[in-house]
Amino acid sequence: MSPPAPVGPMNDTNSEFEKRTRELLADSVQRVDGRIRSRLNQARHAAIEEATKRPSVWRRFSLMPAAGAVAAAVLVAFVLWPHSHRGDSGTEGSGRAGMEDLDLLADSDALDLVSDETDPGQFYEWAVDQSDSNEASSTGA
Amino acid sequence: MPSASHGDVELSDSTTNSQSRALNQFLAGVELKAFKIAQAALRHEDDALDAVQDAMLQLARAYSDRPAEEWKPLFYRILENRIRDMQRRRTVRGRVISWLPFRGNDEDDEEQDPIAQAPSFDPQPPRKLEISETMDALEKAIEALPRRQQQVFMLRTLEGMDVAETATAMGCSEGSVKTHYFRALQSLRAQLGDFWT
Q: Which ipTM did the prediction report?
């Protein structure tokens, strides 16, 4: 078991050390040369320019309904596409499969699995196998 | 109503201008310290400049309409992420280069600038020399600290952030900040004892 840290004198020494270090670091900041200062200045102006180019909060809100409508259209197309593609046979199963696919794509844990380097793609292969076997059993094949 | 919309535009413009001024003031206040922090972590001037520049742009793009009090921890959080990305990329690049069969030694290949290599004839007064030596020793000791200790130490000592702000900037608990800071202090004191007496 290590001995307890000394309290008073050590803290005083630490404060003195901190004070000296702070002064030295502040001094080193003042000594940064002109080339660096100039490049930082340019970077700052570029950042300010970027901030002024940014659309205002109101403009962003005004774009939200349009973005929402596009997202809804994509969602509906994605869910309904298996219906029109496969005809009447097994439409109920296809619709359900579409929803399952959508769930898989929207699942953040699944995204983690995709990025898992030790097991790349295996999760989705498994999911496809599961989906095929479920469809086969529901159609009685 | 044209007059109302005109008024809205004026209001929006004046808000943008005051926001730009505030952002400019904030960035001007942190840029040199941020550069020193990035330089200590990356040990390379141009990489440090790139990291600070990216952090400034990211703050301006994504967070300029947040309250100004939030900018400092956000800015240092972004900077820290950028530094970590650059360090990771360097590690990967180092591994790839180490596998290449015909890699040249860049340092040997680079032509040395004779003027930069020449000894300085500017006589330094003893006090200035002493400060310079102490500063060099301090910077080297800070560079040698483990990354988290270095980060806490620089944010607390150079940037003057309190424990809560530092914890927000680093994405860790206040207890963790205190622990890293204490360890950094102990380590630096052990290394720099001779320069402080």
A: 0.74
- pLDDT band, very low/low/confident/very high, at A6 (cuts 50, 70, 90): very low
Range of the domain at B149: 125-197
| Residues A115, A90 within the same domain | yes
Nearest to B50 by CA among B85, B21, B93: B85
Range of the structural domain that residue A79 is part of = 66-139
Residues from A contacting B (CB-CB < 8 Å) are: 13-14, 17-18, 20-22, 24-29, 32, 36-37, 39-40, 43-44, 46-48, 50-52, 54, 56-58
* B22 domain-assigned: yes
At residue A16 the predicted structure's pLDDT band, cuts being 50, 70 and 90, is confident
Angle A69-A58-B168 (CA atoms, 0-180°, nearest 5)? Answer: 100
> Is A59 a domain residue?
no
Q: Which of B47, B82, B98 is the last residue of a domain?
A: B98
Q: What is the DSSP letter of B69?
A: G
Domain count across chain B: 2
Residue A2 maps to a domain: no
Closest CA to B36 of B54, B18, B49, B27: B49
Among residues of chain A, what percentage have pLDDT more than 70?
36
Compute the mean pLDDT over every residue in chain A, rounded to the nearest whole number.
66
Domain count, chain A: 2
The three-state (H, E, C) secondary structure of A78-106, written as one string: HHHHHHHHHCCCCHHHHHHHHHHHHHHHH
Q: How far is CA B104 from the centre of its chain?
A: 31
Q: Is the pTM of this model over 0.80?
A: no
- Say if residue B79 is in the same domain as residue B130: no
Is A47 in Cβ contact with B27 (below 8 Å)? yes
